[in-house]
Design brief:
The structure holds two protein chains of two kinds.
Chain A lengths: L2 H15 L4 E5 L9 H15 L3 E6 L13 H6 L1 E4 L12 E5 L3 H6 L6 E6 L22 E4 L2 H10 L4 E4 L18 E6 L2 H14 L7 E4 L5 H9 L1 E7 L7 H8 L4 E4 L14 E3 L5 H13 L5 H13 L3 H33 L1
Parallel strand pairs in A: 1-2, 1-4, 2-3, 4-5, 5-6, 6-7, 8-9, 8-10, 10-11, 11-12
Helix pairs in contact in A: 1-11, 2-11, 6-9, 8-10
Chain B lengths: L6 E7 L7 H13 L5 E9 L2 H9 L7 E6 L5 H11 L4 E4 L5 E2 L3 H11 L5 E9 L5 E5 L14 E2 L1 H6 L9 E3 H6 L11 H11 L4 E12 L6 H6 L7 H14 L16
Parallel strand pairs in B: 1-2, 1-4, 2-3, 6-10
Antiparallel strand pairs in B: 4-9, 5-10, 6-7, 6-9, 8-10
Chain lengths: 353, 268
């Protein structure tokens, strides 16, 4: 090992100690549409930034739309952004790159980079979407994974061996607050596929024409503020996403004190209990359950326990300080592990000398 | 601190000889009792029909504060209601028909909304209409929530009323002050007296809101009822007269006073 190499290791150690090592978070360009998974990436990067770490948002192209149109401007203003394309991306051994699970091709491209590599897996059903058959994260040099629930962790462990997995529970944004006014006759709907929302609305109006005055709101493609404003007047949320990995929408609803009727996802999230929502297994029965709820709500017959339970559940995912600490502690752990390894190398070298 | 709101209920009765009167009346009174602490008084403005007078004087209203007010002139829904409103002691008044019922949650919701929406003068319930066998027919007053109907969801405006008439005044809770200020119900207007009242109040900037809760059950076209009589009974209206009263409502609401409108059949 030559002096230059020694100096590099020392510099890396110094950078890590001084929190100067770069933590890149790769974010999808949603072209101005709100997306919970992208919000989490920004929240994580921002948490680290506020604790003095050098976190940077990486995006694919230079004409990145940004998130100002649907997220608080602080995320765009305070976080450094860099495009992968057309930029001489500097990546040192002490740096980290965090890549969402969907970007298998990107993992493939950066296999040889000497930095720390982490997969951020929020949607378990995307894991294999862009990986070649037989390809795994470790085969691409990714041995660390952050996911959002214990259930997803169990699933990932079962399909992706030799990866250490940590869980960071998302935090529900502070824009979601309980409305001080009584709700109106609005049902907010969020589905993975738009056709599921359309189908629900058409079936409901056909089957229950007496409730044609109940308004449905499709909550897709809105800014965070529009989303929160649109939802605040609702008396019910309907959630149809059987492949969800966590379930941000129902938690946002609960935080606004809006009960949720949902299709229980294939991977039932740990926050879901029999008392904090109306969880059903058959998508075809949703309209009947919604109609029952409408009737009960119009008659003030909804069990008050439901409202108590949704508040309790939402509270668990509303502690931003805890989220910040969890993120910081996790990256501290990543950095310290890498730091120890670098110091070990340095000691070996110095001993040999 | 939350203001304690109490509501006076006005119940006009023309006759107790209608089929199933006892049954209907019992249910209506029970529904008033079920409003509990929110009821100030029940004012029954009744004709001097002997059967009815005897029935009311011997009826056990339990703890309800009941005022029995005889009406000795010609029976008139409008005049009897107006008299009851005049007698009421509360700031807020509601209309009840003897063949209808409040839902148990109605006054509780109204008082909650009064507390929140302090500029609103009239609160309408979502009404469940049933036929005389109790079978569900449809909702009334719910249209203020329909998409692209009102400018503001739940709010009833004059403009909305001019394009859609299906709203009703029974079960509504209103400020006595605005009801009297803008002329109460016009006794000379047949069929559309409720519609005309709503048009007149909204025209005079009285704020209306429908509470999205089922607050009232209304029996539609019960034999012997005022609207049944317009359709099938002694007061049966011709198609021409129906049109006349609808047009009248749309013209008369500009005037606060009852101008004693009369229908003159068109000569053929």
């Amino acid at each position: 090992m030559n002096t230059e190499h020694l100096e590099k290791i020392e510099r890396s150690i110094q950078n890590m100690k001084e929190k100067k090592s770069r933590i890149y978070f790769f974010a999808q360009d949603t072209k101005g549409n709100a997306k919970a998974s992208v919000r989490l990436i920004y929240q994580m990067a921002y948490s680290l930034k506020t604790k003095g770490y050098n976190s940077i948002i990486l995006h694919e192209k230079p004409d990145y739309f940004g998130v100002s149109s649907w997220l608080d401007e602080k995320f765009m203003n305070d976080l450094e952004h860099m495009a992968v394309e057309g930029t001489n991306l500097e990546v040192a051994p002490e740096d980290f790159i965090v890549i969402p699970e969907i970007y298998g091709f990107l993992m493939d491209q950066i296999t040889k980079l000497p930095c720390g590599k982490v997969v951020l897996c929020q949607a378990y059903d995307h894991i294999f979407e862009t990986l070649q058959p037989g390809e795994t994260w470790p085969s691409l040099g990714f041995f660390k994974c952050i996911t959002t629930s214990e259930k997803q962790k169990d699933y990932i462990e079962s399909v992706m061996r030799n990866v250490s997995i940590d869980v960071i529970n998302p935090v529900i944004s502070e824009v979601f607050v309980k409305n001080e006014f009584p709700p109106k006759t609005i049902i907010s709907v969020h589905s993975r596929e738009q056709r599921d929302t359309v189908n629900l609305i058409k079936t409901f109006y056909t089957k229950f024409p007496q409730y044609r005055w109940i308004t449905f709101r499709d909550m897709r493609g809105l800014t965070e503020e529009e989303f929160a404003n649109g939802m605040k007047d609702s008396f019910l949320s309907v959630w149809i996403d059987d492949r969800s990995g966590f379930g941000t929408f129902p938690l946002e609803s609960m935080k606004m004190n809006i009960p949720v009727i949902g299709l229980a996802p294939n991977l039932v999230p740990e926050w879901m209990t029999e008392d904090n929502g109306i969880w059903i297994n058959n998508v075809n029965t949703i309209v009947d359950v919604v109609a029952d709820f409408v009737q009960n709500w119009l008659e003030d017959n909804v069990n008050s326990e439901l409202y108590t339970e949704i508040q309790k559940t939402a509270e668990k995912y509303s502690d931003y300080e805890k989220f910040e600490n969890d993120v910081t502690n996790l990256f501290d752990k990543f950095i310290n592990t890498r730091l120890e390894s670098f110091e070990e190398q340095l000691n070996k070298f110095q001993t040999t000398e | 601190m939350k203001k304690e709101t109490k509501i006076s209920v006005v119940l006009p009765i023309k006759s107790g000889k209608s089929p199933f009167f006892d049954d209907y009346f019992n249910k209506a009174i029970t529904s008033v009792k079920n409003q509990g602490e929110y009821v100030d008084e029940l004012i029954i403005v009744h004709t001097d029909e002997t059967f009815l007078v005897n029935h009311l004087s011997s009826y056990d209203f339990e703890k309800l504060n009941v005022v029995l007010e005889p009406w000795t002139e010609d029976p008139s829904f409008a005049n009897q209601v107006n008299r009851g409103v005049d007698l009421s002691k509360s700031e807020w008044v509601s209309l009840l028909e003897f063949d209808d019922e409040y839902s148990n949650i109605w006054f509780k919701n109204v008082t909650n909304y009064i507390d929140i929406y302090q500029d609103t003068d009239v609160f309408l319930p979502v009404v469940v209409d049933v036929d005389d066998k109790g079978v569900f027919v449809g909702f009334t007053n719910e249209a203020t929530f329909a998409a692209n109907f009102s400018q503001e969801m739940g709010v009833l405006t004059n403009e909305t009323l001019l394009s859609y008439q299906n709203f009703q005044i029974s079960g509504m809770v209103f400020k006595k002050e605005v009801f009297n200020k803008y002329g109460a119900i016009k006794a000379s207007v047949k069929l559309t007296f409720g519609y005309e009242l709503l048009l007149r109040l909204t025209y005079n900037s009285v704020d209306f809101m429908t509470i999205p809760k089922i607050g009232y059950k209304h029996t539609n076209l019960r034999e012997g009822s005022i609207f049944w009589n317009y359709k099938n009974g002694s007061d049966r209206l011709s198609e021409d007269e129906v049109r006349f009263w609808i047009d009248t409502a749309k013209k008369e609401y500009f005037f606060t006073q009852d101008r004693n409108i009369k229908y003159e059949p068109q000569e053929v």
